[in-house]
Structures are given as C-alpha cells and as structure tokens.
Design brief:
heterotrimer; A mainly alpha; B alpha/beta; C mainly alpha; B: Rossmann fold; six-stranded parallel sheet; 10 helices; C: mainly alpha; 3 domains; 6 helices
C-alpha cells in the first residue's frame, strides 16, 4: 500500500509536469507551477539535509577518534562559510568574509586539484596502452591528430590549422557526438519513463 | 609462464619525477614573453570562435541579455578569458545584463565577476544580480514560466522594468548567454527552456569536456553560437580585445594563457602519446598487465 | 588577476593562503598524500557549507520563509511547501515513511523534466538536424552524408541489446571503431583543456603570488 502511494505520487507529479509541457491550460499550469516551485524548495532542503548529515557524521568520527584531522577539516570548512554567512546582519554569500574564504580556500583548492589532472591524464593514457593496445592506440591516434591541429601556431599556417580543426570538429567529431547524444538521450528518456511508471521500483 | 617485467629502480625514480619536471617546464615556458609566431586558436585572423562575436554584434540596440554564470571552479580558468571577453563584448554593444546562477560554484564566480564589473563602472542600469536558484531543471522551468521582476535582494531594477515593459519573462531577453560547467550545462538550458520559450536565442561558452554535448546542438542551430574549446575561446577573446576599448566595461581585463606554456605542454603530451604507442608496438605487448609474449 | 582577490591586506593574505594551499595539493606529485587527503576533506566541508548557505540565504529565506512570515494567509501554498521542506531537511533523523512524500515529489518532478527535455529538447531536434535536405547545397549535402554515415553506426554501437544480423553487427562494429576515434579526438581537446588549468595555476603562482610574471 505504501509502495503504491509513493509510486502514484511520483507518477502523478510527473504526468502533471509533462502534461503542462504539451497542453496550454491555466489550471494545469497553476498546479504544475506549484509543483515546480516545490521541487525548487525541496532541492534546497536536500542541501541542508546533506550538510546536517555531514556535521553529525564527522562530529561523531571526531568524538570517537576516527581520522580526527580529516573530520576536523570538514567541520572547519563548513564553519568558515556558514558562520560569517549566517551571522545576523551578514549579506550571505556576498559577505566579505565569505568571499575571502572562497578566494583563499575554495577556489584555489578546486583549481589546484584540477590542475593535477594534466599529468595524471597523460599517465593514464600511457597506462591504457598496456591494457588494451589496439583500442587505446586508436584513441590516442585521434588525440594526437587533434593535438597537432591545435598547436598554437600563428600567422597563415595557424589560420589554416584552425580552419581544419574547425572542420574536424564540425563534421566528423560532431557526427560521432550526435550519435552518442542520441543514444544517451534515448536511454535517459527510457529510464525517466520507467521511474515515472514505477517500473524501476523507486519507492520508499 | 612469463615473468612480469620489472622496472629498474633508477628508471622508477625518473618516472616518479616526471610530473614535477613537467610542471617545472610549464613554469619556465610561462615566464617567456609573448612570441610572435605563436597564437593559440590561430590568432585574431582565425575564424575560430567567430560565431559568438557575430551573434553578439547582431543584437539590437541596447539589448537585454541574460547571462547564466554556471562554470565550475575547477574548469573556469580554461574559459575565464573567453567569458570576460564575452562580457566586455556585450557591454561594448550597450547590453543590459542580468546575471543568474543555478549551481553553487557558479554563484561564487558570479559574485566575484559582479563585484569586478561594479568596480569597473557597471551601475544598476547595466547590470542586475538575480542571485542563485536551486533545483537545476526545476529552477530553469520556473524561470521560464514566471515574470522576472526582482533582483537577489528583492528590489526592482531598471533592467527588470525594461524586461517587464516587453510584457514577458525569459522570452523578453534578446539573448541568453550560458557560461557552462558540469553541474549546469547549456544542454539543460536547451532541453528545459527551448521547448517552453522557443524564440529565445541561446549562446554558450563552455570548457572542452562539454564538447561532446555541445557540438551537436551547435550543429543543429539550437545554440546560435558556441566557444566550446580553449583555442576557440582564446581566438574569440583575442579578436574582442583587439577591437575593444582600453578602459571601462568594454575592456577585456585578462591576458590569454601563455602560448609558450601551452605549446610546451602540448609537445610533451604528443611525445608521451607517440612514445607510448611506439613502445607498445615495438615491444609486441598485447593483453593486460604488459606481460612479454 | 582572477577577480577573487581584492586589493589590500585581505587580498594579499588570500593570495598567500591560496598559494600555500596550491603547493600543499601539488605535494601529491612529490609523493606526499596526507596533505591532499586533508585538502580534499576541507574542500568537502567548504563546498557543502557554501551550498547550504545559498540554499538558506538565497532560496528558502527570501522565497519561502519571509513571504510566509509577512502574510501567511496570502500564500497558503507556502504552508505546504514549508512543511515538506522541513521534513526533507530533517530526513536523516525521521522515519522513512515520513520522508517518502517529499522524496516522491522530488523524484517525480526530476524524472518528468528529464523525460520531457530529452524528447522535445534533444531527440526530436537532433533527429531532424541529421536529415540532409534538398536545399543544403553540395558542400552541406556532402557534410550531411558524411555525418549520417558516421552517426548511424555510432548510434548502433552505443545502444546495446538491439537484435543484430550480420549486416547490422558489422555496422555496429564499424561504429565502435569510429566511436573510439571520436573519443580519441575528444581526449585531445581534453588534454589541451587540462593543460590550460595547469598553466593558469602556474601563472597564478608565478604572477599573482611571486610577482615574477606580468
């Protein structure tokens, strides 16, 4: 009974929103608008649930002496943003203290981790050849060809290379990606339909 | 029974130092001055990234433009030059810009960019902050279906009054420029907004990892313009900087990435790919774990 | 250089902290893993806290709580919203049956947006774009034919479970190799993209921090 109520809710919400996409009806639009607004608020609520959960989990780990430094790092990170952002009179994310934390810690941490990806990507490409030689060699040939086309050469040769790179991007590469996109979109649509119809067993 | 190939200890040490050496090499190349024979994207004469310049140049007088600032903090450095060039390009044609974000990282970047533009002279008649909206697709659908009449602080704005005067919400904008990332990409815009607001032109600046998603949409005309790779973005930014003003909002306040450093890095990458392929062919390795046959 | 840093002491301090954080993360390249481990957890805390801050200050307070406190009778729909939001926000400590309703609404809405968007925003327009029309011109027609000759095998290779005879199997097999080549091209773009991130970080260290490069 509980499972069917939840499945019915999923289906009802989904059908109303889909119907609003197809049918222009003020009453339907009003209900769909309410549901859309509710989903927006629920997304925000999920963020808060995640934060509370993280605080409880790492607070517990710290109290029990499990990876104290790591758990403290998580809790300190959250406090550095939430305390100045939620303080009375604060302007939230636009507060100078929050902006400072973003500039000094959040942005450089992410950027530094992503910058590591270049040497790691090359290392992974190199290792890949040892595992599946023929397939990886084909991929790496494509990669090498694109690297040659993207060499930062100026003048007439650079303009010619950029034109060829543009054609490669616009015709063969785009065709491959269109096939991928169609496949991904088709599979995504089927999965979403299965969820709405309750076929995937998404319930409580 | 074949034995696994063991690397001698000295070679293992060299291989371990390789990433550090790579970083040092890139650093040394970054210190070089701009070399005349190098130009990422082919330089200002290149057609790469032209469609974005044409799309912005073709906007009506004092256009209303919605900028969705949603890059990732990690990949924003790749598109920062093109993004700032696009903002300068928009202000140079007299655009009135509303900025919104649907991802937390995008919001962090939007706050920083809005502060920078305010310092450069963007008043409330040129730039309005619509804040952050949670829920990704739901927030986009909500934005597409409701009037937009208040900024992030709940205040009215000359730009939103002008939008209201057109009698429309999202459809009243002349262009939506999506600065995309992993969490909110232009694909979400196209899938959620285009069926609901079919007349809205959508352009995008995205990092390269989104190219598989973006290229078919650009090809199909669902994106009116796209700067979807680093060379395209740099070529676009270079052409805007060359034709733009030297001060104020129309100035591109950014240098492109070092061509010499990019060249060195690409040559190293090419070398690694060629060495790996050649090594694999010459040693006759097949199958997993590199056992010699 | 990147608009995050303001002028003055605060900006200088932020630059130094950012530089030290960058070097701490990059110590991974020298074999030091503990700093990266701590940095990743610090990042998790910062990112989660920032998202919660935005959710509270820019979504729930201005759009839900403030209007409700100002005039509860004018917006009865918000009463339903605030109840479900509270249930979901406290979900880690509530019984599953209590949380089921807001989760069901969230899942139903998300699935509907995905389904509607995939069909009307991607599948139909992309299928239409793949058709070569009579007014394409010779260049456009050739590009279109080349595109179709690539797209169809790749699509067949991508979709599993499609019944295949010898011809279809051969086309799917060709599509698989074409797909690998295309992914290789994308890898090439990705290498350049990741290189730009490294160059930017190096530029920050040498320019903004050490002042060696202008």
């Amino acid at each position: 009974m509980r499972r069917s109520v939840n499945a019915a809710t999923v289906a009802a919400v989904g059908i109303i929103i889909l119907a609003d996409l197809i049918v222009a009806n003020p009453a339907l639009g009003s209900v769909a608008g309410f549901l859309t607004g509710l989903v927006v608020f629920l997304a925000a609520a999920a963020a808060i649930a995640g934060s509370l959960s993280l605080v409880v989990r790492h607070g517990s780990r710290f109290a029990h002496g499990i990876d104290r430094v790591g758990s403290l790092a998580v809790l300190v990170g959250m406090a550095l943003v939430l305390l100045p952002g939620l303080a009375p009179g604060s302007s939230g994310a636009d507060a100078p203290a929050v902006r400072w934390v973003v500039a000094a810690l959040l942005a450089p941490l992410v950027a530094a981790i992503f910058a590591l990806l270049f040497p790691l990507l090359l290392a992974a490409a190199r290792r890949g050849l040892r595992l599946r030689g023929r397939e990886t060699a084909l991929m790496l040939t494509g990669a090498a060809a694109v690297l040659v086309l993207l060499l930062p050469i100026g003048g007439e040769p650079g303009v010619w290379l950029a034109s060829v790179a543009g054609w490669v991007q616009a015709v063969p590469v785009a065709a491959v990606f269109r096939g991928l996109l169609l496949g991904v979109a088709a599979i995504g649509a089927v999965t979403a339909a299965r969820i709405l119809l309750g076929a995937d067993g998404i319930d409580d | 029974m074949t034995e696994p190939v063991r690397r001698p200890g000295r070679r293992r040490a060299w291989v371990g130092l390789a990433p550090l050496a790579l970083v040092a090499l890139v650093a040394a190349a970054s210190a070089l001055p701009q070399l005349p024979f190098l130009a990422l994207g082919g330089g200002p004469a290149s057609v790469a990234g032209d469609d974005l310049h044409v799309a912005i140049g073709g906007l009506p007088d004092q256009p209303l433009v919605l900028v969705d600032m949603d890059p990732d903090l990690g990949t924003y450095p790749e598109i920062r030059y093109a993004t700032r060039a696009a903002l300068a390009d928009l202000f140079a044609v007299g655009a009135r810009v509303a900025m919104v974000s649907f991802s937390p990282e995008g919001r962090a970047i939007a706050i920083a960019e809005i502060a920078r533009l305010r310092d450069a002279g963007a008043g409330s008649d040129r730039l309005v902050d619509l804040g952050f909206r949670s829920g990704s697709e739901a927030a986009l659908v909500q934005l597409a279906g409701q009037p937009i009449d208040r900024d992030v602080n709940g205040q009215a704005s000359p730009i939103l009054d002008a939008l209201h005067a057109r009698g429309a919400g999202l459809g009243g904008f002349d262009l939506a420029l999506v600065i995309g990332g992993g969490e909110m990409s232009p694909r979400t815009w196209i899938e959620q907004v285009e069926p609901r607001v079919p007349g809205l032109a959508v352009a995008a600046v995205t990092p390269t990892f989104l190219l598989p998603e973006m290229q078919p949409y650009r090809d199909a005309g669902q994106l009116v313009a796209l700067a979807g790779t680093l060379p395209e973005g740099v070529a676009y930014g270079t052409s805007v900087a060359a034709g733009g003003t030297t001060s104020g909002l129309g100035r591109v306040p950014e240098r492109p990435p070092s061509d010499a450093a990019i060249l060195v890095g690409m040559l190293v990458a090419l070398g690694v790919l060629i060495e790996s392929g050649a090594g694999s062919l010459l040693s006759g390795r097949r199958g997993p774990r590199g056992h010699r046959s | 250089m990147n608009a995050f840093f303001e002028a003055g002491t605060a900006g200088t301090l932020a630059t130094w902290v950012a530089a030290l954080v960058t070097l701490g993360v990059w110590s991974y390249l020298a074999g030091e893993r503990r700093l990266l481990h701590v940095a990743q957890l610090l990042l998790a805390g910062l990112a989660t806290g920032y998202l919660a801050l935005l959710a509270i200050r820019e979504v729930l307070v201005p759009q839900l709580i403030s209007p409700l406190l100002a005039d509860p009778a004018a917006r009865p729909d918000l009463l339903i919203d605030v109840l479900l939001v509270a249930v979901l926000a406290l979900s880690p400590w509530l019984p599953r049956r209590a949380v089921a309703l807001p989760v069901a609404v969230f899942v139903g809405g998300t699935a509907a947006y995905a389904l509607g968007g995939a069909i009307t925003g991607t599948l139909l327009p992309q299928l239409a774009a793949g058709i070569v029309t009579a007014d394409s011109g010779p260049g456009g027609a050739l590009s279109g034919v080349v595109g179709l000759a690539i797209t169809i095998p790749v699509l067949l290779a991508f979709i599993h479970g499609v019944p295949r005879g010898r011809v279809m199997g051969g086309v799917a097999s060709a599509g698989r190799f074409i797909l690998l080549g295309g992914l290789g091209a994308w890898l090439g773009f990705l290498i350049v993209s990741r290189l730009a991130l490294l160059v930017d970080r190096v530029g920050f260290l040498l320019g903004d921090w050490l002042g060696l490069v202008r």
